[in-house]
Amino acid sequence: MRPVPAIAATATADPSAPVDRASAARFVDREVVPRVAEYERAGRVPEDLLASVSAAGLWAPFLPVEAGGQGIDLLTLGAVHEEVGRGCSSLRSLLTVHTMVAWAVQRWGDTGQRTRWLTGLASGSVLGAFCLTEPEVGSDATQISTSARRRGSDWVLTGIKRWITNGQRADLFLVLARTERGVAAFLVPRDAPGVEVVPIDGMLGTRSSMLAEVRLRDAVAGPDALLGPDGFAAGMVMTGVLDLGRYSVAAGSVGIVQACVDACAEYTTSRRVGGGPLRDLQLIRARLTDMVTDLYAARALCDRAGRLKDAGAADSLMATFIAKYFASQAAARHASAAVQIHGAAGCAEDAPVARFYRDAKVMEIIEGSTEIQQITIADEVFRRVVR
Amino acid sequence: MSSELTLTEIRTQVREFIAGRYPQQEIADHDDIFALGYVNSLFAMELVVFLEKVFGATIPNQELQIDNFRSVDRMVSLFERMRSGGSPAEAAPVAVSG
Ligand SMILES: Cc1cc2nc3c(=O)[nH]c(=O)nc-3n(C[C@H](O)[C@H](O)[C@H](O)COP(=O)(O)OP(=O)(O)OC[C@H]3O[C@@H](n4cnc5c(N)ncnc54)[C@H](O)[C@@H]3O)c2cc1C
User: Fold this and answer.
1) Which ranges carry the Acyl-CoA dehydrogenase/oxidase C-terminal domain (chain A) (predicted)?
2) Nearest Cα to B47, choosing from A75, A231, A317?
3) What is the per-residue pLDDT across A235-270, written as a single tens digit (0 to 9) for each?
């Protein structure tokens, strides 16, 4: 297992200090915002920043204390992911997929799997990635063709997973694969024989999220690779994991809108047109008003989803679909408006609003595209009426 | 198991949950809800999240068999079995739900 390098000089945070919105905000303002443009250009989140995330205890603070986490609730986790998303959607994406893997091991793992993986996932010495999408299959996840079969006592996986966030860097892949009994989840260490990782660079958005294609050629994942139940209930692993990923992306999208509000308020105060500051123009103020209103609405939807999760309420799944549907579109709409408000300055290579614009588009595609949310949310409406 | 509810209360809550999801359907306690034809993976997950909240415990992987969730009767039996300690032991502690 590749260790996270020794904590860099900047990584002074104490991982046992409470993780909450305020601590995440401080971390982002100090460690992320000053350098995000530089590493986005380089196309990867630097190792010392990954180490800083470890030092700040941000990888999986929702894990129980005995597993190395802080046992924070999911409402707070959403706030943390929002703050990280405000600073950098690529880093938030790494947190999202890592969260999905860590949660899955905690929720579905047996004692052996939890003992083997949770402490590393909590500290960040093991980074997780989530492998569902394939070259021929995206939205319709039931159609995946990657297969898993027993060979002796080992699970052996064959197939190709594409567009895998943090695939370039992750140590542990949570792979959805087909068994004789349906689709199930498997833990595949990066260093398992038969695993090949091919970097994907130059994406439109989340440019430093280190995407990769993960090729599994009779990859030997070991006897304890199957995570959770097989058969009927295996689909729940995927449903539960995607739900949490969607929640994180929704929160990250709120962060993008917040960043747009902040950038526009600042820019329109300093930029002058026609003898006065841009902010005095009614059309500009109207745009900012819409932005702020959607910001609060999106955050309220995320908070509702988080509270329902913390209460163990079944409605939390649908609440999360709705939050992600609204927040990701709000991010795309307002990032576009933010570039417009900045004019040419918003189109420059390192302009933060240009990055928000690129990243926001991705939010409408990942963790269930906008169209898939529409299908699911409408289905729920019809489920409740006579057929 | 931390649930203090009686079997009757469990039965009532399960019934209400199913009825709330399919308000236009008459569903008897022995009816196979999967045979109704519109149970999807989202509903299955919601059902498990709901049952774990009502039961006050994580349902062990080995009990996550479709037959245990087919009807109100079967779900109440699952609860009884879990409460009496008759379920396989490997239950993950739930620190988070979702
Ligand atoms: C930056 C980035 C990071 C990603 N990270 C990961 C990752 O870590 N792990 C992973 O497994 N995947 C990852 N993905 C893949 C992502 O999950 C998929 O792109 C997404 O599920 C959509 O699948 P697709 O791209 O194959 O589109 P398709 O499924 O081919 O869909 C194409 C278009 O058709 C629409 N469409 C599809 N079905 C319907 C329908 N029934 N009705 C109407 N419209 C429909 C879609 O909404 C979309 O607009 C990532 C993608 C990106 C861009």
Assistant:
1) 237-381
2) A317
3) 888 999 999 999 999 999 999 999 999 999 999 999
Whole-structure pTM value: 0.93
Q: Is B75 on the interface with A (CB under 8 A)?
A: no
Encoding tokens for residue A348? 């420059």
Expressed in percent and rounded to 5, the helix, strand and coil fractions of chain B are 55, 0, 45
Rg of chain A (C-alpha set): 21
pLDDT at A53: 98
Ligand 1 pocket mutation pick from A45, A164, A365 by most atoms within 8 angstroms of CB: A365
- Choose the residue to mutate in A366, A374, A379 for probing ligand 1, maximizing ligand atoms within 8 Å of C-beta: A366
Residue A277, number of CB atoms within 10 A of its CB: 15
Distance (Å, rounded) from C-alpha B57 to C-alpha B67? Answer: 19
* Token representation of residue A43: 């196309």
Residue A12 pLDDT > 60: no
The DSSP bridge partners found for residue A178 are: A147, A183
The reply to whether A246 and A366 lie within a common domain is yes
Distance of CA A251 to the CA centre of its chain: 9
CATH number at residue A109: 1.10.540.10
- Segments forming the whole domain that contains residue A192: 130-231
A382 lies within 8 A of chain B by CB = no
Indicate which CATH number applies to the domain containing A176: 2.40.110.10
B95 in any annotated domain: no
Angle at alpha carbon of residue A381, lines to A375 and A383, rounded to 5° = 95
CATH number, domain containing residue B50:
1.10.1200.10
What own/partner pairs with CB < 8 Å and gap ≥ 24 does A349-353 have?
A349/A41, A350/A37, A350/A41, A352/A36, A352/A37, A352/A259, A352/A263, A353/A260, A353/A263, A353/A264
Minimum-distance CB partner of B23 among A228, A311, A384: A384
pLDDT at B98 over 80: no
